From TrEMBL:
Subunit text: Homodimer.
Keywords, sorted A to Z: Cytoplasm, Gluconeogenesis, Glycolysis, Isomerase
Entry function: Involved in the gluconeogenesis. Catalyzes stereospecifically the conversion of dihydroxyacetone phosphate (DHAP) to D-glyceraldehyde-3-phosphate (G3P).
Entry-linked InterPro entries: Aldolase_TIM, TIM_sf, TrioseP_Isoase_bac/euk, Triosephosphate_isomerase, Triosephosphate_isomerase_AS
Pathway(s) of this molecule: Carbohydrate biosynthesis; gluconeogenesis; Carbohydrate degradation; glycolysis; D-glyceraldehyde 3-phosphate from glycerone phosphate: step 1/1; Carbohydrate metabolism; erythritol degradation
Pfam families in UniProt: TIM
Family of the protein in this entry: Belongs to the triosephosphate isomerase family.
Organism ancestry: Bacteria, Pseudomonadati, Pseudomonadota, Betaproteobacteria, Candidatus Accumulibacter
Catalytic reaction list: D-glyceraldehyde 3-phosphate = dihydroxyacetone phosphate
Binding site for substrate: 9-11, 173, 213, 234-235
The protein's name: Triosephosphate isomerase
Catalytic residue positions: 95 (electrophile), 167 (proton acceptor)
GO terms of biological process kind: gluconeogenesis; glyceraldehyde-3-phosphate biosynthetic process; glycerol catabolic process; glycolytic process
SUPFAM superfamilies linked to this entry: Triosephosphate isomerase (TIM)
Amino acid sequence: MRKIVIAGNWKMNKTVAESVKLAGEVVAAARDIKHVVVAIAPTHLALAKVAEVVKGSNVKLAAQDVHWENQGAFTGKVSADMLKEIGVEYVIIGHSEQRSYFGETDETVNKKVRKVLSLAMKPIVCIGETLTERKEGRLESVLTTQVNGAYAGLSADDALSTVIAYEPVWAIGTGVTASDDEAQEAHAFVRGLLAKLYGDSVAQSISIQYGGSMKPENAAGLLAQKDIDGGLIGGAALKADSFLGIIAPGEALSK
Ligand code: PGA
């Protein structure tokens, strides 16, 4: 059965020294977590140092982005090989901030997903609608395009190594969370899209995280939903105690 996966997306926060400190606190806080998969995604700059901190713990290392080419003249980018070498297991791909500020498209998401899978890392594929898209009744068409784009050409085996993060853009960093029902409805729709592509049993095995102002106060309600299998956490992941406040209800539900 699918697992609850809770990943902290630190975005452009924390120096290397601060990242090492926070990673150590997360490792300590998550010491007794046995059922939830816990991951943290510091900046690229801090990954190598944080890798040393999480080594041997039950906290997995995640990266915030990757380039799809192996190497070459791509100023500012890092390759999947580079991430793999230092022990990265999960890579966040297609985050709405990448899509809106840095020109990420469904096509580049697909290229990155394939590259990450080819090196046996797990992509966390981010999808989600803007407020305008939701208001205009385009939620389902947006999610359909994003899922079909991200999974284009992927086999069922490939798909089983992915995680999806459904993040309504209007809930990211705003303090506004989708209600339990709104989130569940979108998650069920996304699982239906996966079922169309790969059949029901594969779709039932893929973890779909919720993201967007998830915090200790709303985590239990969201995680209790049938199709919500974890969270991609921004702001609340920047402190070990609030991050643990999201992981703990997930652990309780998984027992
Ligand atoms: P937030 O960010 O928890 O701060 O809303 C979530 C995300 O962007 O992954």
